[in-house]
Amino acid sequence: MNAFDYNLTWLESQTYLSFRYTLEEEQFLNINLLELLNIDKNIFSNYKFVPLKTSNLLKIRVNAVIYSNEILDREELCNSSVNVCHIEVEVGLQKDVLLKTIINLKIILQDINDNSPKFEKHRKVISLAENLNLGHLIQLPTATDLDSFLYNIDRYEIKENTDEKYFELTHDDVDLFDEDIFSSPRQAPYLKLIKSLDREGRDLHRVHFTAYDKGIPANSAQMIIEIQIEDVNDNRPQFLSLYYSKTLVENNTSESNIIQVLAHDSDLGENGEVWYAFASNTTKFYGDWFSIDPKTGVISNIQNIDYEMFGPEIKLEVLARDKSNNLTSTPALIDISIKDVNDNEPLIHIENLKLSI
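User: That's the sequence. What structure does it adopt?
Assistant: Structure tokens below.
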């Protein structure tokens, strides 16, 4: 809606007239000063209109018409922080070389909601360790809107790509009334961690982060926040089986592979690398007869096994550790049955007998 108001001042030798004309942005200007003031054009038929203060955007015709050659865009002319955006021109009415009247015109450009919020980027990637404490805050980027405060940023909202909620919106460590809506755009928005992270359960979270302006209906902009969960060494190696069995014939050729144990660690990288070793008691009693490959878990006998020495059964305990050596698995038991072979000749022990005749 366009409107104007004016102020008339009589000076000793000339008249000073100032008025404001309000014009919605995004349109051309074309006004006649005399028609606005409801003045008979014949009164000023002998006057010459002289530009005193002009703008590159506005032109003045000799018939007192002020016009623009292009659409007036408030955001191009004024910063969004400026409450009142105006263009000022002054026109003089000259008669017989004398300046009789000065007309000051301020054209107030009224903002319309012709700009949407904008984020600097459409996507942001954040990395978080899976062992972060609840309540951890992640500062989010803010959106900008070129419109004035009437149509500037009004609120933010989030929506996660899972039914479980891991985050809520907050600012300055103060919870919001609605955990999904943040309506104080002058303060930086934050994501607050409200559910423990677990990389092994979900290694990527996507949060749709939306900014709305004050328009009706509101314009909006959306950013995708990708939260990558970094691994920490929080999982113990687990054997695929806690019990293995093997039958071994005594005097089996030494340095032969007997059995392989396997364990898995859900962590990534070095945290997930598994190393194998005998338990201390196994090393103490059987370390001279058996070995285990620390990388593959293959158990070999390094000396011939003698049934007469060990009996019918040998029990070995194997542990799996991650590379940091901090987390150890539950021991796996290897039950080795020794099969006797006829490898010993009978021995006859004759004692001297004394006979009385």
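DSSP finds four helices and 26 strands in the chain.
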